[in-house]
């Protein structure tokens, strides 16, 4: 099994420098994960904002260096790869960014965002071919070339900008697409089209997709596997059938409960507003979720739970399952094969 | 009331038009906006300025980005109050700020912070705090939870619901997420290509949509009930500059017939529901629609 991309015990810490008054943020805390070359998967990384999922994606793409740990591309440490290898990495691992307002340079027309990758990665030999490629990818995401090309970003709606980002990623025929909330600002009907395209890319072209989101419903529909992140650590991992339909970690259970479901008897309006856990005085040096956890026990505050396997190939980092066997390897992707 | 529609269908345009905040070259071509019997489109500029925020508040889309990054939260809230009520004593302003922050579930200390020190959900609640500072009668919330994660989304929506009850204000909630909107609203309007195509009580519309577009919108909601093929609405929303003759939805409608392509349907009232569709009133309900799973052809 050739590892295409691998992160080993990667931790990313922000702050802690000379001028930051000792405020450190551990954005990603000791995560190990890999993506195989020959087994394309669609994996979700889910968690609330601040959980570290975007930072994890940036680490995997080689956009930011880890504080500790290693990121390997085709077995080679990213800090040591040659310029050609880095070029290949950039082409093979394509991002789709989250914020359709910020991802564009407002001075350029949107064509620029499609033309630059074509030039840089030499995707089309002639201008005519390039134009054809551009129109193809636009149509794949439901955009009309006549209405999109030649415009400035502010002249398109948020949904259109986001779809354009997806089109851009499709240009390069990558091996891995790191999609950070690719459909969050797109409407339900178009969401289905874009997600279906991502799934088709995976099935037909063998592209692995890392789908970063807080929307568990679409994650369930498109992904096979999922990692749930909380405060920089993975708290639960496994197939979407197990993790989402039968969540075991108290945090996963909270996430599922927060999903708005249309229909009678499922309204959560009227419940008491839950105060955010700003006020908790007790700091946990153990499980990060202890302060918000309805099931927290004394040990949770001082010890970090390992990954337990209460039922088959699903790992839960929670002492509620301490009687189950422990996951041998630290590489969570081993659960998925 | 909820207003739902695809991106580009005119939801934000409508929201800004209600308060006469349309940016040129957009202009209001006709109609009325009746507030307490007064037509807002014909009152003086001075009068509409005093009404904005004080009587009708707008929480714009991505409003977290509209906070001034170099000013602390407290002065930004005070700014809004001073604009309408004049320069009140500092102590009173401080109290009002603390009060309004508490009402949106934030601690008063947040007034000392800068926007970048707050999370997305907190910023959104600050903007809501500004919106309710003067106890308006109407709150227009344009996609108040887009880009917020599902846990914070719930908190923000519960806050909005709580505020609405407390103020006795009417809320116009604009968005594209039927799941979220249906949790909150009593009635819903469905917008397509700038026109209202259906309007009714939320439960009735969910259980029994009249307009084919509404039906497809509801069907395209992903659920946790089991994996299935993605169901979308085939085709694209029409270019507003180049609308087809007849019903704007006809090119995409699985139930379209000849009349649909030549005559624009009028909004009609049918037993507590309003719908703009040629199927009615000759039909009493939507005929069954069979939508096959969409197959996104990957042309590579």
Give the gist of this structure:
Chain A is α/β, with parallel strands linked by helices and 337 residues long.
Give an overview of the whole structure.
Chain A has helices at 53-61, 83-92, 111-120, 127-140, 145-148, 158-171, 188-205, 216-222, 240-245, 250-257; strands spanning 3-15, 24-36, 42-46, 68-73, 76-77, 93-96, 176-180, 208-213, 225-230, 233-239, 308-309, 315-316, 325-326. Chain A is an alpha/beta fold. In chain A, helix 3 packs parallel to helix 6. The relative contact order of chain B is 0.12. Chain B is built from 9 helices and 10 strands. Chain B has helices at 11-18, 45-51, 73-85, 90-103, 120-132, 150-167, 178-184, 202-207, 212-219, and strands at residues 2-4, 34-35, 38-39, 56-59, 138-142, 170-175, 187-192, 195-201, 268-270, 273-275. Chain B is an alpha/beta fold and 300 residues long. The chains are: A alpha/beta (337), B alpha/beta (300). The interface between A and B is large, with 69 and 61 residues.
């Amino acid at each position: 099994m050739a590892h295409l991309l691998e992160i080993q015990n990667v931790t990313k810490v922000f702050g802690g420098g000379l001028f930051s008054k000792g405020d450190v943020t551990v954005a990603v805390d000791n995560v190990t994960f890999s993506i195989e070359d020959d087994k394309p998967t669609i994996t979700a990384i889910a968690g609330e904002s601040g959980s570290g999922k975007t930072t994890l994606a940036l680490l995997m793409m080689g956009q930011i260096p880890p504080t500790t740990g290693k990121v390997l591309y085709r077995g080679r440490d990213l800090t040591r790869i040659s310029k050609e290898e880095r070029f290949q990495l950039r082409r093979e691992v394509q991002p789709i960014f989250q914020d359709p307002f910020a991802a564009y340079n407002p001075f350029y027309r949107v064509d620029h965002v499609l033309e630059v990758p074509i030039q840089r990665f030499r995707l089309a030999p002639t201008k005519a071919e390039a134009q054809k490629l551009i129109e193809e990818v636009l149509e794949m995401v439901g955009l009309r070339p006549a209405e999109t090309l030649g415009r400035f970003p502010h002249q398109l709606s948020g949904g259109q900008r986001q779809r354009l980002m997806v089109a851009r990623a499709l240009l390069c025929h990558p091996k891995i697409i790191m999609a950070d909330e690719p459909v969050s600002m797109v409407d339900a009907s178009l969401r289905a089209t874009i997600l279906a395209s991502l799934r088709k890319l995976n099935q037909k072209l063998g592209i692995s997709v890392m789908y970063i989101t807080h929307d568990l419903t679409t994650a369930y529909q498109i992904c096979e596997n999922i990692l749930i992140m909380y405060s920089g650590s993975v708290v639960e991992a496994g197939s979407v059938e197990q993790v989402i339909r039968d969540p075991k970690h108290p945090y996963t259970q909270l996430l599922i409960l927060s999903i708005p479901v249309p229909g009678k008897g499922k309204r959560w309006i009227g419940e008491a507003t839950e105060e955010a856990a700003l006020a908790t005085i007790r700091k946990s040096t153990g499980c990060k979720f202890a302060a918000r956890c309805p099931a927290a026990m004394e040990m949770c505050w001082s010890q970090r739970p390992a990954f337990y396997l209460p039922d088959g190939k699903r790992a839960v980092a929670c002492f509620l399952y301490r009687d189950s066997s422990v996951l041998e390897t630290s590489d969570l992707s081993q659960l998925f094969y | 009331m909820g207003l739902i529609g695809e991106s580009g269908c005119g939801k934000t345009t409508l929201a800004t038009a209600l308060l006469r905040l349309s940016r040129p070259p957009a202009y209001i071509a006709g109609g009325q906006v009746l507030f307490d019997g007064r037509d807002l489109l014909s009152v003086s500029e001075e009068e509409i300025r005093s009404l904005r925020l004080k009587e009708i508040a707008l929480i714009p889309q991505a409003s977290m980005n509209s906070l001034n990054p170099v000013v602390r939260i407290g002065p930004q809230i005070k700014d809004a109050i001073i604009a309408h009520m004049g320069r009140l004593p500092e102590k009173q302003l401080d109290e009002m700020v603390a009060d309004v922050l508490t009402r949106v579930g934030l601690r008063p200390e947040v007034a000392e912070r800068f926007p970048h020190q707050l999370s997305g959900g907190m910023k959104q609640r600050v903007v809501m705090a500004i919106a309710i500072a003067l106890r308006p009668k109407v709150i227009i919330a344009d996609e108040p939870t887009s880009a917020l994660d599902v846990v914070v989304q719930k908190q923000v929506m519960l806050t909005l619901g709580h505020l609405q009850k407390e103020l006795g204000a009417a809320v116009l909630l604009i968005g594209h997420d039927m799941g979220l909107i249906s949790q909150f609203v009593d009635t819903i309007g469905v917008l397509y290509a700038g026109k209202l195509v259906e309007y009714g009580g939320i439960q009735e519309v969910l259980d029994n949509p009249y307009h084919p577009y509404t039906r497809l919108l509801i069907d395209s909601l992903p659920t946790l009930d089991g994996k299935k093929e993605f169901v979308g609405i085939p085709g694209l929303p029409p270019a507003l500059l180049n609308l087809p003759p007849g019903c704007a939805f006809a090119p995409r409608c699985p139930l379209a017939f000849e009349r649909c392509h030549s005559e624009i349907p009028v909004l009609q009232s049918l037993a507590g529901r309003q719908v703009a569709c040629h199927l009615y009133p000759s039909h009493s309900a939507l005929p069954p629609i069979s939508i096959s799973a969409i197959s996104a052809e990957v042309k590579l």
